[in-house]
Design a protein that fits this description.
The protein is built from two helices and eight strands. The protein has about 160 residues and is of the alpha+beta class. A hairpin with a 2-residue loop joins strand 4 and strand 5 (about 75-80).
């Protein structure tokens, strides 16, 4: 029997800790063909999402994917995020949480009997309280120097 990944369990635990502590849980996600997110908000192949109760509707965190509905600029969108594409989950207020290496889908990085933990993804620390998330650090060097849209960074709103 194949080993079950601990990543979805850790994601749910950090989410619960954030909500119990009154913090706003944020997800950093690597965007690829398997990910369904509003592409106009993707920067450098990544997107940061507010997944708090007030910002989402129908949030479901399964072992394979995270799904929910959210509003972007007043338009309701269905989001689908494979668990293996989650780069980090953290509290927006203090930056505490957990980061993950995302290089290939979990099925491709699962350890075999010959190499018990050699290819397993590792964990790394999330930036501290005063650190800026990677998606917000600087404009892309590829000429994407457009000024920010009115209202600043996009936020998610809960839909009923």
């Amino acid at each position: 029997m194949a080993d079950i990944s601990t990543k979805p369990y850790l994601l749910r635990a950090i989410y619960e800790w954030c909500t119990d502590s009154g913090y706003t849980p944020y997800l950093a996600v690597k965007v690829d063909a398997a990910t369904t997110v509003p592409m106009e908000y993707v920067k450098k192949g990544e997107i940061i999402l507010n997944i708090s109760y007030g910002a989402t509707s129908g949030l479901k965190m399964d072992n394979d994917a995270i799904t929910f509905r959210a509003r972007f600029n007043g338009v309701s969108r269905e989001l689908y995020i494979p668990v293996h594409n989650v780069l980090a989950i953290y509290a927006n207020e203090n930056g505490q949480g957990m980061a993950f290496d995302v290089s290939a889908p979990a099925a491709e990085t699962a350890p075999t009997a010959a190499e018990p933990l050699a290819s397993a993804p590792g964990l790394s620390a999330v930036p501290g309280k005063n650190a800026t998330p990677a998606a917000e650090v600087a404009p892309a060097p590829d000429g994407d120097n457009d000024p920010p849209k009115k209202g600043g960074r996009p936020t998610l709103t809960r839909i009923k």
